[in-house]
Specification:
mitochondrion outer membrane (chains A, B); homodimer; alpha+beta; FAD/NAD(P)-binding domain
Chain lengths: 447, 447
């Protein structure tokens, strides 16, 4: 039985461990932090998760029962709810029928659920194991994980899965053995976690429609909110760093929120809003990708460790889960681990590059374009064409979020072809409108 | 007196230390390796250096006498000498007059010379200091360098200069305090060091013209050779990795070299050639850049630590020396260290991005284009226009290698403008040639 060391007990690491364990590998998870199920420290930098089809597909592939449990704990969101400056709310469906939904779920709940499953599956879980470096056994070439602190024994495995997040130590080690292309880029946008408590006597009533992802789009900055099961919403404020830094005292925060997010101030509560701005850390957002993702049949990185993306397409976790799915499939299909890793690096790069780019672009859509008449017109034409042409015409958002059978790069390719046609139609419509208006004007002035 | 820790005792680190020391800073150099002047181990991965105007300008700025010593130990190269398959040699001037030269110099000689100057200047040199991490003093925020090995004392400085090469530990630390954009990309080309011994009874006679950079351009791969003072040439073979890997036994090497570099086999010597391929390590080539280069008034990276480039424009060291020049000038002009670092990051990035790109592109020119008739035609027009228009028209190579007053990004900008015009002229000439040929053909067929 081959032994596997999975570095990182986050969402992607746990799912990979479960999948490998089901395939008969002897799996150990090494996590640098303490068991989150025992810890009282809440992470104040979490952005709520939306699990959609790609994620669900991977969960189902690994364990249909697990997927069912997860889906019983989500809140489906069928569209965006746009809040304008006056507090007026307008709904925009995500899907074609109004029934397709992405699903709000609490990150720590999901992580704890996965950790419980991992334990049930007989996978060894070692917390407080901070990776120092990876050495190789001279005899069989197997990777040996060495940890910080002399009292922790080194561990040897047949291969290693690095699922240890954006600042991955496994990836840093990988760069020592292979010629790895690598890039990371921070976007000029930070974020801060806020929350909207539940209302009513029991504080468990939703103060906004729970089945929407709420957005207050204000061009350069925005506020969002996603519902939790207990009636509360987790809310996140995104803004360029210069704006975030100016919001450094109570007066500035209050003035800013009263001006741009008036209806949210009541929902969040004035005191709580100010407390969050005083106490919560500011998070930064980066895009990173590398190539290749593996070293021989010994080490591979997946999830954020291989490719971090900004959160604006709601695909970070879904894509990480899809990594697990793709890798498990290849381990099944290819002749050995080395061939599977090699094929993974070869085929996965273009899909990851596609979704990273889309995630970056979607900030514009969320914070700005959702307000634009031309955008809404294009979206309407998009929907009409889909209704007429059925599966021959699919909006990009639908392909990314609801069609796990279409890989990211394919979705972008189809979208680019469709977008050219859309632009032509849009211009014809706008042209007709201008023509019509000019006729009206002519009629009026001739009179 | 402010204290400065320079990490890295390579060429750029030494020059930075000398420059800062002259400006009144108390400088200490920390180097992870042993003193190269004491060591017998020859680096078998060096690619010969060509110092040109930007490098000389920086040396002169730091110490005119030092520049003079360096220039007394170089071999000027006024052009490329192209070796074709039959061994026929053709000279191509680098400059406009045939007198402008880039200057071959031995890397280890130059490094030892700089180390001697560093010691004379009273700069503290600490070898075998392998940086572990940078901490900060809680009281004054000063960086503290911590080294690997408990017996080595941590050192505190007012600020740190990281000149510790492509795999810079200072840069890796910097990434922990700031949001640094970063990219690295390996090109599909490795290299292997060879050499051509001196000839004659004393083995000190040059077997090729010493005042040329010799190139055997073979499209996807190439061989180059630069003269050393002792009559020998340091030669480097560059090729895509699949070709390099196939040259894994004596027969394959010999067959390959006999086929593509026949005249070089005699020069290098059959046995020595095979020995080199057996024993010498294969080097890889990467491009890397980051942004910003500094953290507050505490840490900055320069040279290869900030931007590694492939060696095909002969600008790696020259650019690193120019970094030192630009930084020293800013420390003079700006109100404090923080302002100087900040201005450096702001203004230097576009110049570095420009030269990195040019270096990558120049592989095509060296290995392939120098053989092309159209390239040579364009080059001739370029030279003619320069002669007519004087300073108003400058070939790119001239601006990069001989005009330290024109920054890299400016040179690229001017070149792009000129190149458009060149292409038009070239097309007119080629058009005229085609027209002329068609007239001749018509005349001949009508007869």
């Amino acid at each position: 039985m081959s032994t596997v060391g999975v570095v990182g007990a986050g969402l992607v690491g746990c799912l990979a461990a479960l999948g490998l364990s089901k395939k008969g590998y002897k799996v150990t998870i090494l996590e640098l932090r303490d068991d989150p199920r025992k810890s009282q420290n809440k992470n104040l930098r979490s952005i709520n998760l939306a699990v959609s089809n790609r994620g669900i597909n991977a969960l189902e592939y690994v364990d249909p029962e697990l997927a069912e449990i997860v889906l019983s704990k989500v809140i489906p969101m069928t569209g965006r709810m746009i809040h304008n400056l006056e507090g007026v709310q307008t709904s925009q469906n995500y899907g074609l029928t109004g029934k397709e939904a992405i699903n709000s779920i609490d990150r720590s709940y999901l992580n704890e659920l996965l950790l419980n499953e991992v334990e049930k599956a007989g996978i060894t879980l070692k917390f407080n194991h901070k990776l120092d470096r990876i050495d190789f056994n001279n005899d069989n070439g197997n990777p040996i994980l060495k940890f910080i602190g002399n009292e922790i024994e080194p561990l040897e495995f047949d291969f290693i899965i690095g699922a240890d997040g954006s600042f991955s130590k496994v990836r840093q080690n990988l760069q020592k053995f292979i010629r790895m292309d690598y890039q990371q880029e921070y976007i000029d946008c930070g974020y801060l976690e806020l929350s909207i408590p539940g209302g009513g006597p029991q504080q468990n009533e939703f103060l906004l429609d729970k089945n929407h992802l709420h957005i207050w789009p204000r061009d350069k900055f925005m506020l969002i909110a996603l519902a939790n099961l207990d009636g509360s919403f987790t809310s996140t404020f995104f803004a360029p760093w210069d704006i975030l830094e100016k919001l450094s005292n109570d007066d500035a925060v209050l003035e800013f929120f009263e001006k741009y997010f008036k209806d949210s101030v009541e929902l969040i509560g004035k005191d709580h809003l100010l407390k969050c701005f005083r106490d919560h850390p500011r998070g930064s957002l980066l895009t990173l990708n590398c190539k290749p993702y593996h070293f021989a049949n010994k080490v591979i990185v997946i999830g954020d460790a291989a490719h971090s993306m900004v959160p604006f397409y709601g695909q970070g976790m879904n894509c990480g889960f899809e990594d697990v799915y793709v890798l498990l499939k290849l381990l099944e299909q290819e002749k050995d681990v080395g061939a599977a890793f090699s094929k993974y690096s070869e085929t996965r790069y273009k899909d990851l590059a596609s979704i990273l780019e889309l995630a970056k672009e979607n900030y514009k859509e969320m914070s700005h374009k959702v307000n634009s008449k031309v955008f809404l017109l294009k979206k309407q034409i998009d929907f009409i064409l889909t209704r007429i042409l059925k599966d021959k015409w699919l909006p990009l958002y639908t392909m990314i979020s609801f069609r796990q059978d279409i890989m990211y790069s394919k979705a972008v390719e189809v979208h680019q072809r469709q977008d050219k046609i859309l632009k032509i139609i849009q211009n014809v419509i706008l042209g007709a409108a201008v023509f019509g208006a000019s006729r009206v004007y002519k009629y009026l002035t001739q009179k």
